Amino acid sequence: MIGFIGIGLMGSRMAGRLLDAGNDLVIYNRTQSKMQPLIEKGAKGASSPKEVGSQADIVFTMLADPKAVDAVAYGEQGLLVGMKPGSLWIDSSTISPTQSVQLAKRAHEKKIRFLDAPVAGSTGPAEKGELLFFVGGDAADLEEVRPLLNVMGKAVHHKGANGAGTAMKLVNNLMLGQSVAAFAEAVAFGESLGLDKEGVIQSLFAGPTAAPILHFKENKMLKEDFENADFKVNSIYKDMELASEEAYGHGFALPLSNLVKAFYGLCQQQGKGDYDFATIYDLLKKH
């Protein structure tokens, strides 16, 4: 039996892939109603993280933020109370490497194995099983769970010991936030010079500077449809803040990242925290 905790935008699609592949699944989500579509497809619902842990040999967690991960892990109804010795916990949440190492330590004290395995990719790749997993932890544990990761993703990068997976995720999302902000500013600048927006985007894509993520944001930018989020402002701001905190702890400066992060913070202040993070274009353009 496989457990999955966190049936949100990403988790629902990842768990759905596991279910469609024929795996027996027990699931938990704080908002119970979000579990219903998967239960109707054959998943078993649980009333607590502890209940998931007591039934599953392998448990995935995909949660919104560090506080949510701690809330699921600890306490009388926590995952670590329910999981059996020898079972394997894979956390795909985006948290700090420091927190991942602490979770691994607490799990190992209970003879529970732990991998940090956050993902690159938003809802579209999650739906298609095209995520990229960054994994930290024991190589043998990774090989055991690799077939399941391959159901949900297109590639698995083992980065080293516990914490290395989440470290790579922060590196990835730091660049992600900057790339979309730079794209938004360039498009908005082109428009301010009297250029056609669609033409600007086509010319940028024809050149050497357009990363793959920008193609995913083309329609968002053209239609200015930011309310239907693939990846929220709140999420990219949180990830860049985690990177900033981790950098501070290691005596490393992130001048570009911290400036871009502040712009996403302004989007939040405008009440757009739940919008797609490409809404930074709307903040930057000349109205």
UniProtKB/TrEMBL annotation:
Q: Which residues form the 6-phosphogluconate dehydrogenase NADP-binding domain?
A: 2-158
Where do the catalytic residues lie?
K169
* Taxonomy, superkingdom: Bacteria
Name all 3-hydroxyisobutyrate dehydrogenase-like NAD-binding domain ranges: 163-283
From the UniProt record, which GO molecular function terms apply? NAD binding; NADP binding; oxidoreductase activity
Q: Which InterPro entries match?
A: 6-PGluconate_DH-like_C_sf, 6PGD_dom2, 6PGDH_NADP-bd, HIBADH-like_NADP-bd, HIBADH-related, NAD(P)-bd_dom_sf
Q: Name one Pfam family in it.
A: NAD_binding_2
Alphabetized Gene3D superfamilies for the sequence: N-(1-d-carboxylethyl)-l-norvaline Dehydrogenase, domain 2, NAD(P)-binding Rossmann-like Domain
Its keywords, alphabetically, are: NAD, Oxidoreductase
Q: What is the similarity comment for this entry? A: Belongs to the HIBADH-related family.
PANTHER family according to UniProt: 3-HYDROXYISOBUTYRATE DEHYDROGENASE-LIKE 1, MITOCHONDRIAL-RELATED
Its protein name is 6-phosphogluconate dehydrogenase
Q: Report the source organism.
A: Sporolactobacillus inulinus CASD
